[in-house]
Amino acid sequence: MNSTKMMFLMFMLMSTMLSLSSNNWFGGWMGLEINLMSFIPLMSNKFNYYSSESMMKYFIIQSTGSMIMLMGIIMMSLKINNQLDTLIMCGLMTKLGIAPFHMWIPSVVDGLSWLNCMLMFSWQKVGTLMLLSYSINFSIMLLPIIFSLFIGSVGGINQTSLKKILAYSSINNMGWILIAMKSSMTLWLNYFVIYTIMIISLTSMLNKMNINYINQCFLTSFNSMNKLFLSIMLFSMGGLPPMLGFLPKWMVLQSMIYNNDYLISIIMLTTSLITLFYYIRISLMMILVNSEKPKFMSIMIDKKIMFMFMLINLLGFFLIMIMKSIN
């Protein structure tokens, strides 16, 4: 981490704050543009031949989304048409990678490092999601929500790259976040914060172990303790109770049932089970393959990091019990 990258990282953080604190659409758009130009230099990686390709794809897609959004903002300010929030939503959905504007995410993610993936799945979505929550129209967004749920769940089944699997899982989670926006600001913010905690813990562990593909999890030299903790992370990402990932999905489903949205709740549950399927498939195959070091306490990764990840994901159990006692 040199001084140049630290400067771009600082600009990336400040630009998101600019988008969140602006009181007009032009300020929000400007913050997203500064955020884009700050993140692209951070994507550069001389050890990865595909990073330049990912940078170019990311720049083109984000610029296209910004152009559509700016067109909607200008036409809205000129009061040409009252229905121009659709253009703004399409631009923001393109920037977020919500289906059917999702094609770029798996190919871009494949050329990034794990730390850049962590930023792209978490911080890069904060400002865009907040702006989308201001202009969202659920009569228009219903189809993209259903597409995101189905494509995000089915798309990850055939993948061998863990980055692509997390990319499709991110598309599926975007569908859940958009549905949570229908209920309240607090609900989708809670969902996004918990999703960010899970994605940071999982990508940090995969980065420390230097794992990019599924077959690397099945190596005989892969420590059995590491397999156990990586499985806990994957179960949490899939939303398996009593892990932390189950808590936000439970809150959203409860809210949907209170609002009598039973059909969309069934779709959400079905797609979530498909997502859980490919996470469990990886975990079971990883656990069942024999390790060269089967001793339970032979630990390769740092103990503090390992226990931190364990506590974060098992925290979901206690939160669920507290919420159940309150209800």
Automatic annotation (TrEMBL):
Catalytic reaction equation(s): a ubiquinone + NADH + 5 H(+)(in) = a ubiquinol + NAD(+) + 4 H(+)(out)
EC number: 7.1.1.2
Signal peptide location: 1-21
Gene Ontology biological-process annotations: mitochondrial electron transport, NADH to ubiquinone
Pfam family, one: Proton_antipo_M
TM spans (from-to): 55-75, 87-109, 129-153, 165-181, 187-207, 228-250, 262-284, 305-323
Listed InterPro entries: Complex_I_Subunit_2, NADH_UbQ_OxRdtase_chain2, ND/Mrp_TM
Descriptive protein name: NADH-ubiquinone oxidoreductase chain 2
Organism: Cosmoscarta bispecularis
